[in-house]
Every structure is written in structure tokens, then in C-alpha cells.
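Entry 14. Ran structure prediction on the chain below.
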Amino acid sequence: MKKLPAVLVASFLKTLAAASIDRTLAGDYLKWLRFYLDFCLKYRHPPRDSDSLQPFLQKLAEKNQPVVNQEQAAQSVKLYYETLKNWPNDSAVAMPSDAWAPVFKQLKDEIRLRQYSPKTLKTYRVWIEQFKEYLVDKPPSAVSSEEARRFLTHLVTDRNVVASTQNQAFNALLFLYRHILKADYDLKDKVVRARRTRYIPVVLTREMRGRPCV
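Output, C-alpha cells:
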């Protein structure tokens, strides 16, 4: 578990005091905040986004945390949001470092703006996460179309994906480059393409046509 930056702890404690939280409970509230930030970093949830709270609480429920603990954790995270209200959006102490966190936040915003389905958001997010892992956490600011070409080729040569799966990844990265990174996505036909599966039709003989189905 990552240590919280001192400036964040100091600001958070002031928020607790302003909310009349018992000082003896400060350690518990800080504990839940650390859990929340670690959760966001691990599962690629933007810590500043209140939509990240419900998945966090669901994870606590899955771990059989008592309801009273879940309620305290929820209050702790909400007070964390209050703490951040006066901080700049690019504050380096607001969360454990993850250069890709804003990408996933913007992905959700761009998908909602275009009124795409939740299924599309989930699919694109999965592929972008896999792309991120393939890059060994290379920051998005340093990504070029060459990385996309290598990743899409890797899917075929190393993972043996079918054409429809590679096309999913292609479309997810196209959305990433075009609408989020605002970067060139000219792959110039250099990607090794997966072969399309050919289905051989079954032709029934006259004898087979007359047989009853079983």
C-alpha cells in the first residue's frame, strides 16, 4: 500500500475536523482513503471521479467488510472529494502516480458524449488497458502510431487472435488516438492482419435429407 503524501494527509485531516469527525477516528478514515486510492490505481478508476466510489464499495462488500465499515469508507472517500475541491486538477499529490488515469477518465467522457453503449465503453477500456500493459506503463504522451502497429501485430503473431478480435482492438486504439491522444494513427498497412475464419457449409446428401432428426 502506497504512503499518502504529507500534504494530502494534512489537507484531509483539516477536512475531517471541519466535518466534526472525532479525532480518534482519523486513523481509520486515512486507512480507507489509502485503500480507495490503491483500488483506483489497481483497477484504473480515476480517483477524482465520484463514479469510482460505487465499484470501491462493491469490492469491500465482496471482501465481506461489515456494513458499518463500508459506510465509514464511503464517508471517508466523500470527504476526500471535498478535500480536492480547492486543488488544481493536475495536482501531483492528489493520488498515486498513474499517467494513464486521465486517459480512462476522458475515454468515459468521450463515449458518453457520443452516446455509445456501455458495452462499447467496456470493450474499448479493456483493449486500452491491454495496450497500456503491453507498453509497460509508457506514458501516453510518449506513445506514437508505431506502438499501435506493434501491438496489433503482436495480437496476431504472439496471441493468435482471430480477425474480429483484432478489429475490436484496432477500433479501440483508433478511438484512443483520434479522440483522446489527438495523435496520428496512420498505420500504413504495416499491421499483420489476422486471417478471417472460413466456414465450410454442410451439404446434405439425398439420403441424409430423408433421415429423421434426433
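Residues 6-84 form one domain. Will compare against last week's run tomorrow.
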